[in-house]
Design a protein that fits this description.
Strand content: 5-15%
Oligomer: single chain
Strand order of the largest sheet: 7-9-10-11
Shape: extended
Largest sheet: 4 strands, antiparallel
Helix content: 55-70%
Structural class: mainly alpha
């Protein structure tokens, strides 16, 4: 049996072929070398005479290692050359030459064509050589070489691990050989010779790497394991050796039937080589098969043999098919197919192009002209695009340059604290407005004017609707009065009717005055006095809502006062009144205004304290207000969401006990013992805390309760911190304002102290009361016992310590073990309080604007009692000097119009809640109180700029003191000509006109008509006047503050433009809302007018259809017959009386120039041919004219009655009548059914 051939990867012990190491000659290594005993071919290391050192064995081993490494490099070199078909550098120089990656890039292009885009051969830019190595990595990825065989970029580029590179090339060769894509790498061990110097330098290089030499002998097995291939898989390799196994007894069989050769593959194992039989019939045999006593020529044996051969051939074919399929799926094969397809497409395209050339040659020459024209057009468009791109670049560069210059200007002006006159004059031209500024200013002014006009129109419409509403109410009230009076006055005598009329008029007047005096909200009597008082109270409420400084000051003044009752009652009354004024913050508008009030209250309270700790000792009204308003239905849902499950857990757990007092726990132990045993406990009942803790059971319960308390507190704390986004905005907004005011008032105060105040407000005043008293907040519905509430109280006690950042002291010594936890949790909770204040300001959150109230179709309304409103009126009167020291402002005007309050101690006022619609006292845009001063500052700065353009000096005061020459006057004329040039555009002209005209008090001044001397004089007076109002302007620094203001205008011009754009956008949105409101009010006006007209027509027609009985031959009977003969009968009737009759009824009070005894000679006729218009006709023989006529609208009579006017004159002042009785008679004759 022949010795099997070892694999090419076996190191040193097995060489290629059947020869041993006796035929191998390696200088300085194998000369006179002996084999290891029992291992033929393994060189035995032996000490020679030259090896005098003690490390002779290490030296020879290292030399042998260097030789093996050089052989592996030679194997890689020969394999690369066989692939590239070109010669590369020698073995000893290959490490340095491979550093640039050129050889690897060429190899990658050969392995996977198309992967390498370019091969970098540049010697100047060596850093680009890494691209060659990366291309090789792409090729490794394309052929799917496992990552375990790859090397790093620095291994080759920085020569950190060259052996790993050679190892990768070996692994790549094995992979490609398995796929039949490249030749197998050869085993050159023993076939190469190297000098001693080469081996020594190689070993030094290996020692310098400091890495472990890769195992080149196991590459094939490692690759096979990584590719998940089985050990018994066949590898179709032409280098496999086939051996013939001789079996005894079957060497010569009849019929020339011989046993087939069985394939035996050499093993790669390092163990002793043993044949491996892969045939199915001999898979379990490792020795010579024993002879069998059966004939192979029998049909059964022949069939088995044939099946065995068929199975083997099928397996080989399937394996070959899988290898071919794997090759087809490889990137290399696909790239080759793509190249083939590309060549085919190229051939087809060239054939198509040739056919087109032939067809074009046969065509007319006009197509050439068209192609040239198209080409010329394309070239022209490309040139134009290039030109446009160049222009855009130039514009961009110009804009960039301008921006840099502006930035440079800003930096120069900002860095100087007090710029000089010369510096400001260098950049004063930047204040000039361009066309865009003028257009934006025109647009802003136009929108503002439209807004003002629309607001005024809406106000007029609103007032008209109020008047119509009053008329409708008067009409309805008079209609009811008619029906009631007619039921009483059927058939009375004349004197009784006269007396009833007088009583009715007196009753009307008395009822009106009585109700008006006691309740301005009374709706039973409608008159002008009540309406005026009601309007003033509506304006008062609106003023207090929108100008919170009044209420904030009043709250601060009355905090510790005793007025109108005890102090506690006064505070409660003030709180309830303020909440009613702001509608309990149930709507966004009222909530925004209440938060704004809290801002001012915080400012007032902070003024009275000297340190933050003092703030925590106060009981502030704004906290009560915001806490109460944030406990509504919506906020109760927040409490249920945060605390509901936890409180239910505490209340529902009957075994939970959070008691931490040892004495109480000791008593609980005694009670439990007595309940359990039914016998009196032997423990002493009266013990101290130390004696109680000496008991083991008490101590265990105490520790258990502490742990349970900490766990439960942690749950509550986690629930609170996780509910940050659900916390009501009102609480967060007030906390934000509180933090900002405290940081501004105490800038050096640590953040920890600020967070303590926030925790006092949020945790102590808002959150913990809901935990202790959950049934009051509708958190749970089940009843809470004493023990459960005490457990909740213990949790709250720990939470309050955590929120304030303090630990338990001697007063709570038994909770001291939790101090470490309290300190740690306190830091986290303090950070949470700061996060609570991280919200938008109220204006941004609610989206509120100054003109929002003008755009609402429905007026805001509150519900308040006359008692609360009159008491508030009384309080404002008492503190008016403190609220308005200058005795001017909207509040002073309203209180002056209202007069003294009806609230007096002992006077009973109605406490019934009434609905009150708030109204703005001003019709136009609201004016900022400081707007006049601000406008004066703006005008003064503009005049100072004009002066600086003409005269120069070290400071403003020096310029003001300089004399004015003729040259200065000439320069000023030139400046005026350039500044106030004539503009044709009327819009721009209006803006320029506005800049020319200055309004100083009640005087309007045209700057264009001023001389330079007058300009300087006025400017200096304005500057000295402003020094009284603005702290920045003072003569101490020679009015440097004015220059600083001008610098701010120069550097902030872009900001002002942005603000102007935002203001235009806001005003346009407001204008749209105002126009929508105008449309709504117009529709309401049509509805009211139609309803009023229809009501009067219906009442008149109803009366006209019913014919009253008229006594024959009476004055009325004869009057109607006369009208019928003339064909002038009015549509709704006509009634004729003598003046004496109307006087007896109290309708006529007097007749001018006529004695009473002649009243019966005067005829008075009342007719109504058109609904709502009563015609009065009077005739008297002694009058200069035959008859007097007058038309009176019924609505006018109702308005006169509403204004409280008792009498009026008719018929050109000749007749004085009682308005109430006249309306009564008209209703009875024309409108009553």
């Amino acid at each position: 049996m022949t010795q099997p051939r070892p694999t090419p990867l076996r190191a040193l012990t097995v060489m290629s072929g059947q020869q041993d190491l006796n035929d191998l000659h390696i200088p300085t290594i194998t000369d006179d070398a002996q084999d290891v005993i029992g291992l033929q071919g393994r060189i035995r290391l032996q000490k020679t005479r030259k090896n005098n050192t003690s490390q002779w064995m290490d030296i020879q081993r290292n030399t042998l290692q260097a030789y093996e490494y050089l052989c592996h490099i030679g194997e890689a070199k020969e394999w690369i050359e066989s692939c590239l078909l070109e010669t590369i550098d020698p073995i000893t120089q290959l490490e340095d030459s491979m550093k640039n990656g050129i050889v690897l890039a060429k190899l990658a292009n050969w392995i996977a064509p198309g992967v390498v885009h370019r091969i970098i051969n540049d010697t100047k830019h060596k850093f680009l050589h890494s691209e060659n190595i990366n291309s090789f990595f792409k090729a490794l990825q394309a052929v799917r070489l496992p990552q375990i065989f790859w090397f790093e970029l620095t291994d080759l580029y920085d020569k950190k691990n060259i052996p790993k590179v050679i190892f990768c090339i070996h692994a790549l060769s094995h992979l490609l050989a398995r796929k039949k894509l490249a030749p197998r790498i050869k085993n050159l061990f023993g076939e190469l010779e190297f000098t001693k110097e080469e081996l020594s330098s190689t070993q030094k290089a290996l020692d310098g790497y400091g890495v472990v030499m890769p195992n080149f002998t196991s590459i094939d097995k490692s690759l096979q394991r990584e590719l998940d291939e089985e050990d018994d898989n066949f590898d179709i390799d032409t280098n496999f050796q086939f051996k013939k196994i001789q079996l005894k007894g079957i060497d010569a069989l009849p019929g020339d039937s011989t046993t087939p050769d069985l394939i035996v593959e050499d093993s790669d194992s390092d163990d002793e080589v043993s044949p491996k039989y892969n045939a199915p019939l001999f898979s379990s045999q490792r020795a010579i098969v024993e002879p069998k006593k059966e004939d192979w020529t029998t049909p059964a044996n022949l069939d088995r043999l044939i099946r065995c051969q068929a199975m083997m051939r099928g397996r080989l074919q399937r394996r070959e098919f899988q290898q071919v399929q794997q090759v087809h799926r490889s990137t290399l094969f696909q790239n080759q197919v793509n190249q083939l397809q590309a060549r085919v497409r190229g051939v087809l395209c060239r054939q198509n192009l040739g056919q087109k050339k032939i067809s074009l040659a046969a065509c007319d020459e006009t197509w050439v002209t068209k192609i040239q024209a198209a080409c010329c057009g394309h070239l022209g468009r490309r040139s134009l695009n290039a030109l446009l791109e160049m222009v855009d670049r130039n514009v961009h560069m110009e804009g960039f340059t301008t921006q840099r210059l502006v930035h440079h200007v800003n930096q120069e002006l900002i860095t100087q604290k007090n710029p000089s006159i010369g510096t400001v004059k260098n950049f004063i031209h930047l204040l000039s407005d361009n066309d865009l500024d003028y257009n934006a200013e025109v647009a802003l002014e136009s929108v503002r004017q439209k807004v003002i006009n629309t607001i005024r129109e809406n106000k007029q419409l609103d007032a008209y609707l109020t008047m119509l509403d009053t008329k409708i109410a008067l009409l309805m009230r008079n209609a009811i009065s008619i029906d009631e009076v007619l039921k009483v006055t059927n058939g009375p005598l004349r004197k009784q009717l006269r007396r009833f009329s007088d009583l009715a008029a007196m009753a009307f007047s008395d009822a009106s005055s009585t109700v008006s005096a006691m309740d301005p909200f009374a709706s039973t009597t409608i008159n002008q006095k009540n309406q005026t008082v009601l309007d003033l109270y509506q304006q008062l409420v609106y003023t207090l809502q929108t100008e919170p400084r009044y209420l904030a000051t009043l709250v601060s003044l009355t905090k510790d006062q005793d007025l109108g009752g005890d102090g506690g009652e006064l505070r409660k009354r003030m709180e309830s009144t303020i909440l009613a004024l702001f509608g309990y913050a149930t709507h966004p508008r009222e909530e925004f205004l209440l938060i704004n009030l809290c801002r001012y209250c915080i400012d007032e309270e902070i003024k009275l304290i000297s340190n933050p700790q003092e703030f925590m000792r106060g009981n502030y009204t704004f906290m009560k207000l915001v806490v109460q308003t944030n406990r509504g239905a919506k906020e109760r849902e927040f409490f249920r969401h945060v605390f509901g499950a936890l409180i239910t857990e505490v209340v529902g757990n009957e075994f939970l006990n959070l008691e931490t007092n040892p004495v109480e726990i000791y008593h609980q132990v005694i009670n439990d013992e007595e309940k359990r045993t039914g016998m009196p406990s032997q423990r002493n009942y009266n013990v101290t805390s130390q004696e109680a803790l000496a008991d083991e059971e008490v101590r265990q319960r105490y520790i258990s309760n502490l742990m349970a308390l900490r766990t439960m507190t942690e749950k509550f704390l986690s629930a609170i911190t996780q509910a940050l986004d659900h916390l009501p905005y009102g609480i967060r907004a007030v906390a934000r304002e509180l933090r900002l005011v405290l940081e501004s008032r105490f800038p050096r105060e640590p953040t920890e102290n600020i967070s303590k105040i926030l925790s006092y407000f949020i945790c102590y005043r808002y959150l913990t009361p809901a935990i202790v008293d959950p049934e009051e907040y509708d958190i749970i519905e089940m009843p809470i016992g004493f023990r459960e509430r005490k457990n909740l109280g213990e949790v709250v006690k720990v939470l309050q310590k955590i929120s304030t950042g303090t630990v338990f002291d001697a007063s709570d010594m038994f909770l001291a073990p939790l101090n470490e936890y309290v300190e740690k949790a306190g830091k986290e909770f303090a950070a949470w309080f700061i996060k609570v204040t991280d919200v938008d300001d109220p204006e941004t959150f609610f989206g509120m604007e100054v003109l929002d109230d003008h755009t609402r179709t429905q007026k805001p309304a509150i519900y308040i009692s006359p008692y609360e409103l009159c008491h508030l009126h009384y309080m404002l009167e008492q503190y008016l000097e403190d609220l308005a020291p200058k005795k001017q402002g909207t509040l002073v005007d309203i209180l002056s119009d209202l007069g003294p309050s009806q609230f007096q101690p002992g006077v009973e006022l109605s406490k019934t809640t009434r609905r009150l619609q708030v109204t703005n006292r001003h019709d136009d845009l609201p004016q900022d109180p400081s707007s006049q001063v601000q406008q004066l500052v703006t005008d003064t700065k503009r005049l100072v700029v004009y002066v600086m353009q003409v005269q120069a000096g070290r400071d403003l005061l020096e310029i003001f003191n300089q004399s004015v020459s003729d040259e200065h006057e000439a320069q000023w004329k030139e400046a005026k000509r350039a500044e106030f040039q004539e503009l044709r555009d009327p819009r721009l002209k209006a803006i320029a006109q506005k800049h020319r005209m200055l309004k100083l008090g009640n005087t309007t001044l045209d700057v264009n008509n001023l001389s330079f001397f007058q300009l300087k004089t006025i400017t200096y007076r304005l500057v000295t006047h402003l020094a009284k109002f603005d702290e920045q302007i003072t003569p101490d620094d020679r009015y440097q503050g004015v220059l600083n203001m001008i610098v701010e205008d120069i550097t902030g011009k872009n900001t002002r433009r942005q603000q102007r754009e935002k203001e235009i956008t806001k005003l346009e949105g407001t204008l749209g809302n105002l126009q929508a409101k105008h449309a709504y009010l117009s529709e309401q006006r049509k509805t009211y007018e139609h309803y009023l007209r229809q009501s009067m027509d219906t009442m008149a027609k109803k009366r006209g259809r019913k014919q009253r009985f008229v006594w024959p031959f009476s004055r009325q009977y004869l009057h109607m017959r006369h009208l019928e003969k003339q064909g002038k009968v009015p549509t709704f009737g006509s009634f004729k009386y003598s003046a004496k009759q109307l006087f007896d009824r109290g309708v006529i009070l007097s007749l001018e120039g006529v004695q009473r005894r002649h009243y019966d000679r005067i005829t008075i006729t009342l007719s109504m041919d058109q609904s709502g218009i009563i015609n009065f006709q009077g005739s008297y023989d002694n009058w200069s004219t035959t008859a007097l006529y007058m038309d009176v609208q019924y609505e006018q009579l109702l308005q006169t009655q509403f204004e409280g006017i008792q009498t009026m004159t008719l018929l050109d002042g000749m007749m004085k009548v009682n308005v109430n009785l006249l309306i009564f008679m008209i209703n009875k004759k024309f409108y009553s059914a």
